[in-house]
Amino acid sequence: MAPDTASQQGTLVSHLDRLLSSREYPKTICPSEVPRALSAAELRTIGVADWRDLMPEVREMLQDRRRRGQVEILQKGLLVPDDVNVCDLKGPIRARKVEEWTATKAVV
């Protein structure tokens, strides 16, 4: 089965939003929590065999959200500078919603 890009994106966005919303600033999520939250049926629907196959897409989503000022990326407990692309980072990272974005989203 070929991956359905729109379905994949929508499913990942839904899980990312839910996880970020469930943590109050300054609590973080591990990016791997997003694809690991998918059920076996969701993985089959979007055409991947293993949640690890979705990690590059999750990192791209986090990079995009960071660019829009919605999340911060941390590595070893320190903020990753904005000029470093999340997709280029080696090793574990954490993500958290930006404090100001939290307040703005709650008002909407």
UniProtKB/TrEMBL annotation:
InterPro entries found in the cross-reference section: DUF3253, WH-like_DNA-bd_sf, WH_DNA-bd_sf
Listed Gene3D superfamilies: Winged helix-like DNA-binding domain superfamily/Winged helix DNA-binding domain (1.10.10.10)
Pfam families for this protein: DUF3253
Domain of life from the UniProt record: Eukaryota
SUPFAM superfamilies: Winged helix' DNA-binding domain (SSF46785)
Protein's recorded name: DUF3253 domain-containing protein
Protein species of origin: Lepraria finkii
